[in-house]
Amino acid sequence: VATLRRGLGARAFPVLAGAMGALGGALMRLAGTAGREASALSEAEGSFGSLRTYIAPASLIAGYCVSQVVMFSAHNRALIHLPLLQATVVNLAANTLCSGALGLALFEESHVLTARWLLGCALVVAGAWLIGRSFEQGQQKEREEKHKAT
């Protein structure tokens, strides 16, 4: 049971890293939109514009920076607990799913609900599961061989 808890806890790090990567991308896309709106507003006012027109883009960029720090930290923690390939594949699967969910929720991207996109996501998640499973089976075989040798 302790091994299972450690394994699930270790997988939380690449999932968090993938989610933070997707969030960072969404925040920068929102910052670009807010920046264009601030620019248009300042042109309409005929001046550089007030400070409040730049607060929204700046706060979104700050949120991006925070999400990237969390993503980097979580990925490094994942690499401590998991092999590189397993951490990277789980990170990719989480990033793909979170990017799609954020694209649909924030930007009304309709391609997220197509059968082709959903099939692609299912294949990425299945690949992540297979890699994780094969790694665990390999570790189990190593333990059995060591136990037989002693």
Explain what this protein looks like in three dimensions.
- Helices cover 89% and strands 0% of the residues.
- The chain is built from four helices and no strands.
- The chain has helices at 2-45, 52-81, 84-107, 115-149.
Q: Helix count, per DSSP?
A: 4
In percent terms, what proportion of residues is strand? under 5%
The outline comes out as elongated
Major β-sheet, in short? none
Radius of gyration: 21 Å
Helix content: over 70%
Mean pLDDT rating:
83
Structural class: mainly alpha
Amino- and carboxy-terminal Cα gap:
24 Å
Low-confidence parts, pLDDT < 50 over ≥5 residues? 1-5
Sequence-ordered SSE layout with sheet pairings:
Elements: H1 2-45, H2 52-81, H3 84-107, H4 115-149
The gist of it:
The chain has helices spanning 2-45, 52-81, 84-107, 115-149. The chain has 150 residues and is mostly helical.
Supply database-style keywords.
150 residues, mainly alpha, disordered N terminus
